[in-house]
Automatic annotation (TrEMBL), chain A:
Organism: Actibacterium atlanticum
Lineage: Bacteria, Pseudomonadati, Pseudomonadota, Alphaproteobacteria, Rhodobacterales
Descriptive protein name: HEAT repeat-containing PBS lyase
GO molecular function: oxidoreductase activity
SUPFAM superfamilies in UniProt: ARM repeat
Ranges that cross the membrane: none
A Pfam family hit: HEAT_2
TrEMBL record, chain B:
Residue ranges occupied by any Fumarate reductase/succinate dehydrogenase flavoprotein-like C-terminal domain in the UniProt entry: 449-558
InterPro entries: FAD-dep_OxRdtase_2_FAD-bd, FAD/NAD-bd_sf, Fum_R/Succ_DH_flav-like_C_sf, Fum_Rdtase/Succ_DH_flav-like_C, SdhA/FrdA/AprA
Residue ranges constituting the FAD-dependent oxidoreductase 2 FAD-binding domain according to the UniProt record: 14-382
Keywords recorded for this protein, A-Z: Flavoprotein, Oxidoreductase
Any GO molecular function: succinate dehydrogenase activity
A single GO cellular-component term on record: plasma membrane
GO biological process: anaerobic respiration
Family matches, as Gene3D superfamilies: FAD/NAD(P)-binding domain, Fumarate reductase/succinate dehydrogenase flavoprotein-like, C-terminal domain
Protein name, UniProt field: Oxidoreductase
Source organism of this protein record: Actibacterium atlanticum
TrEMBL record, chain C:
Pfam families per the UniProt record, alphabetical: Fer4_7
GO cellular component, as recorded: cytoplasm
Keyword Cytoplasm attached: no
Organism: Actibacterium atlanticum
A GO term, aspect molecular function: 4 iron, 4 sulfur cluster binding
Keyword Iron annotated: yes
Official protein name in the record: Ferredoxin
Superkingdom field: Bacteria
UniProt entry keywords in alphabetical sequence: 4Fe-4S, Iron, Iron-sulfur, Metal-binding
Residue ranges constituting the 4Fe-4S ferredoxin-type domain according to the UniProt record: 10-42, 47-76
Length: 317, 580, 80
């Protein structure tokens, strides 16, 4: 009878396969080491990052996804400079899976690297580790010529949630690339500063709808005095996605003064928008808007109908 | 490999978890953490690394109850309404209260949920009043992350053994009989508690492609859980509430309107018009879909070609990377581009699956079945609409409760004769010189399921089905023939499939009313709240055939107002409010 | 009732030149939920993986997990 249970082998025994002259055998050894889920396997996998065979190196970079800490991160950073793009890609993916803040120790020295792919991967990897030391290099990288790098750098800044980064984020909110602008605007969500709010309000007039959408959504988080007026001004945006986020944000802000403008939007032929309007009218609970909702109490769209009835219930209460 | 060997081994463990897909690994982990001294064995017909419904991953959670976005009360209400009121709310409510803790735990495992640019959870969609959809950007690594946790916790994993029958004695569970899928050797596991997480009965109906394994569910989920629970004497609830899904035609994978819906995609008829307003999968939605096809307004499509380029590429990114990655290949092969064409959809074959409907082994809020020491979780247990997060969460409940249960009991004695009888049953197809191969037994069963059980349900047709199933059973028991141990696995699956087909017919005949839209549309009967506002419980009767009883729906924890009860009833678009 | 031999095309294709079954690799065989892959010796005496049973869910772990990119999953002809 073959072995019944999956085995828990000795790591050093598994690692012997890494000395086999055949690359295939070394790949198999890496897979076994990875499956062990034993941190004792990390040094062996790290060594395999410098194997002469690209397939082995790629497997090692993939295998390191299952581990964490500075040693893992250091090996992955080395792999980012590999001559084979498949190894670089595998290493970049694995870097994003790091969770242990100490892993950042091995990434920090590489945040001023020239190579855009390596730099973007390092920022992406360290973002979720939330290391305060990343702030300086991330702000500097906002000047980088590559928009991939700028997007990742903005991401890092947003996760750090530090008011001192505001000027940098406001600059990024005027970046030439729409995706950088969008990311920067969403990142402003943590800030309670009126400068952040002013930047978001200004972005409601951006030429790209995905940027206006991000601004409308994020204004619900900042919530200062000027937000409501600004959001009301985009309730007639040509993209329903922008209108929807504006309505949602007005609901979150409790902007009862906007209720009479949201009411007539129930008649628009966009199902997602109608659902959102009904829900928000309920949240605002302004009795004068009841007639806009009553028409749709038996709407054929179950989501609209439910939200409408819920909203009317709120007004009655 | 694959030759048929003679062998029988017996092992003991405290908790046997059958099924290493979604619920099973979480059950094993929770039990082991609660009682590190317990010997927990996790057994799978395939390999735990890549087994079960989420073998390739999952693109997101669609029933996450996250504080600030939805409340347990709201969620419980939604699910009760979506399931036509037939719902013991305690299990749903407990799920809703505790699933956020499971999300945080999964996040620690390295399974990521989408966060916004400040690192907070990015809950996407408002499909009802609450917000429940949480995308998973690295959803393709779910199984890997789970596997890593199992290895770290030193859970004993047994791969490539298929359990065929549960053992019972002293009025409780005693273990399970299993067979190796590559050698046909037997393994008897004595256990103080058994947790079943064997997935849906996904190979019940036959896909219209005619390809046996072209099912919506992972075809390894062939209903063993339902069959084993039945033969052990457990109660199964509301099996007539079939799973039927709106899928991409031929590919038979989900169209995922829940991904596309919030971004503006929708289900349309041949003219490109919306005819249903809510793409949330429910029996009523499927009924409208069916009516549209019957009314000559089909085919029905997933419509995305009116959306902005940014939106379409975002939808593609989500849908083509995880859960069913071959979906991109399929569209490429057909030359369909979301930007240009609508995607043809159809109505799936039937199955049992509580993950999307409510047909499952009856369990309470601790995942306990009606047999002491026996638990069930995930798609095979009857907590309605519980999806992947429900499998994780209810699996956790099962593991935690089982860890307590084993503290007070020793192994239950069972009749050794049962093992011998099961060996004879299992090995019978290996003892013949020729006969009917299992794929033909399976094909015929499933073709009959389509012919006679696919709704709308007609009494005379279902009675014919029962007669035909008996003939197939006779052929299976007297004439099935297998050449190797792999085929023997398929033969055992054919037997589970036939058991499920029998149960589907019997359960559907018992409930003499219509409920759950298309799922239980009995053309001769209207809805009848007076007599049928209850669960139906199916058990194995004295005569070895399905027996039935009604069981009261437990008093609600969360009250539902009368005007809310029809929330899923009317779904047809009012032409005067034209869609965009 | 004797059995017939009926041909069928299989969706999973393995590139023998890339497959390292010779080195003891069984990754694709291990991860297949339906257990349809096996290792066989080729005419040249090398080992390679192949699809033995036409029971594919086109789910892709074999392709995704193959360390050398030797496996391609196509859609079964009946539904593509």
């Amino acid at each position: 009878m073959s072995a019944l249970f999956e085995e828990f082998d000795d790591i050093s025994e598994l690692a012997e396969g890494l000395d086999d002259p055949a690359p295939g055998a070394r790949i198999m050894a890496i897979i076994d080491l990875t499956d062990s889920a034993d941190p004792a396997a990390i040094p062996y996998l790290a060594k395999a990052i410098s194997d002469e065979d690209a397939g082995v190196r790629k497997q090692a970079a993939q295998g390191l996804t299952d581990f964490d800490g500075p040693e893992t991160a250091a090996a992955l950073v080395i792999a980012l400079s590999d001559t084979d793009p498949a190894v670089v890609e595998a290493a970049a993916i694995s870097l994003k899976e790091l969770k242990d803040p100490s892993a950042g120790d091995s990434i920090l020295p590489h945040l001023s690297d020239e190579d855009e792919i390596k730099l973007a991967a390092c920022f992406a990897g360290i973002k979720e580790l939330r290391r305060p030391e990343t702030m300086g290099p991330a702000i500097a990288a906002l000047k980088h010529s590559s928009d991939i790098v700028r997007i990742e750098a903005v991401g890092v800044i947003g996760w750090l949630q530090d008011e001192t980064s505001l000027p940098a984020l406001r600059d990024a909110a005027h970046d030439a690339t729409p995706k950088v602008r969008r990311t920067a605007l969403s990142a402003l969500g943590f800030s309670k500063s009126e400068h952040a709010e002013a930047t978001l309000i200004e972005a409601l007039n951006d030429s790209e709808w995905i940027v206006r959408e991000a601004a409308a959504e994020t204004l619900a988080k900042t919530g200062g005095a000027g937000c409501v007026t600004a959001l009301r001004s985009v309730l007639d945006d040509e993209f329903w996605q922008v209108r929807l986020k504006a309505v949602r944000s007005l609901g979150k802000l409790g902007a009862t003064e906007a209720a009479m403008e949201i009411g007539p939007m129930m008649d628009l032929p966009v199902p997602n928008l109608r659902k959102e309007c009904a829900a928000v009218l309920g949240e605002l609970a302004v009795p004068e808007t009841a007639p806009f909702l009553q028409k749709y109490e038996d709407d054929t769209d179950p989501d609209v109908r439910k939200n409408v009835r819920w909203a009317l219930g709120k007004m009655a209460a | 490999m694959d030759e048929i060997l003679d062998g029988l081994t017996q092992i003991d463990c405290d908790i046997l978890v059958i099924g290493g897909g979604t619920a099973g690994p979480m059950a094993a982990l929770k039990a082991k953490r609660k009682n590190p001294k317990a010997n927990v064995v996790l057994l799978d017909k395939a390999n735990v690394k890549r087994s079960g419904a989420i073998s390739m991953g999952m693109d997101g959670l669609n029933n996450s109850v996250i504080p600030g976005y939805a409340t347990p009360e709201q969620y419980t209400k939604e699910i009760t309404i979506a399931n036509d009121g037939i719902c013991d709310q305690a299990a749903v409510y407990r799920y809703a209260q505790e699933c956020y803790g499971i999300i945080e735990e999964l996040d620690e495992f390295g399974i990521r949920f989408q966060k916004d640019e400040n690192g907070e959870y990015d809950v996407k969609k408002v499909h009802h009043i609450g917000t429940y959809v949480l995308p998973m950007p690295n959803g393709d690594t779910v199984k890997k992350a789970l596997y890593r946790q199992l290895r770290k916790a030193r859970i004993n994993i047994i791969n490539r053994y298929m359990s065929t029958r549960l053992l019972t004695g002293e009025g409780r569970v005693a273990g399970a009989i299993c067979v190796n899928t590559r050698t046909a050797e037997f393994l008897v596991v004595r256990a103080k508690a058994v947790i079943m997480g064997l997935g849906a009965a996904g190979r019940l109906g036959l896909p219209t492609s005619g390809y046996l394994m072209g099912t919506y569910e992972n075809p390894t989920n062939s209903g063993e859980g339902y069959s084993m629970a039945y033969h052990a004497g457990a109660g199964l609830a509301n099996l007539e509430c079939y799973q039927i899904n709106p899928l991409i035609k031929d590919y038979n994978g989900p169209a995922c309107a829940y991904v596309a819906g919030p971004m503006g995609g929708y289900t349309a008829n041949a003219k490109g018009e919306r005819f249903i307003e809510c793409d949330y999968w429910s029996g009523q939605m499927m009924q409208e879909f069916y009516d549209e096809l019957q009314g000559g307004k089909g085919p029905v499509y997933l419509k995305l070609n009116h959306l902005a380029e940014e939106t379409v590429s975002e939808i593609e990114r989500v849908l083509h990377i995880v859960e069913r990655p071959t979906r991109g290949h399929f569209h490429a092969g057909r030359g369909t581009d979301y930007r240009k064409q609508m995607i043809e959809m159809h109505i799936s074959e039937i199955g049992f699956c509580s993950g999307h409907s409510a047909s499952g082994v009856f369990v309470d809020e601790h995942a306990r079945t009606t047999i002491p020491g026996l638990y069930a979780a995930g798609d095979m247990a009857n907590v309605p609409h519980n999806y992947m997060l429900g499998a994780f969460t209810n699996g956790a409940f099962a593991g935690l409760d089982a860890a307590d249960f084993i503290a007070d009991v020793d192994f239950a004695a069972f009749d050794e004769g049962e093992v011998e009888a099961e060996r004879n049953r299992v090995l019978a197809p290996t003892k013949r010189d020729d006969g009917i191969p299992p794929n033909q037994i399976e094909y015929k069963t499933r073709r009959l399921v389509n012919d006679y059980l696919q709704p709308p349900k007609v009494t005379a047709k279902m009675e014919l089905a029962q007669k035909r199933f008996e003939e197939v059973r006779d052929d299976m028991e007297q004439g099935m023939y297998v050449q190797d141990s792999h085929e023997l696995m398929r033969a055992l699956e054919a037997s589970s499939i036939l058991d499920c087909a029998d149960m589907a017919a019997a359960a559907s005949l018992y409930r003499t009313e219509s409920r759950w839209g298309l799922y239980h549309n009995r053309v001769e009967y209207e809805r009848d709240n007076e007599n049928w506002f209850c669960h139906t419980i199916l058990t194995k009767g004295e005569d070895g055939k399905p027996a039935h009883r009604k069981q009261d729906v437990k008093p609600y924890v969360v009250e539902i107002a009368d005007e809310e009860k029809d929330a899923y009833d009317k779904q047809r678009v009012d032409p005067s409010v034209a869609a965009e | 009732m004797p059995l017939a031999q009926t041909s069928t095309t299989v969706p999973v294709i393995v590139n023998d030149d890339l497959c390292i079954a010779d080195k003891g690799c069984t990754v694709c065989v291990d991860v297949c939920p339906l257990d349809v892959l096996r290792i066989v010796e080729t005419d040249e005496g090398n080992k390679t993986a192949f699809m033995k049973y036409d029971e594919c869910w086109y789910c892709m772990p074999c392709e995704a997990d193959c360390p050398t990119g030797a496996v391609t999953v196509n859609l079964p002809y009946l539904l593509k």
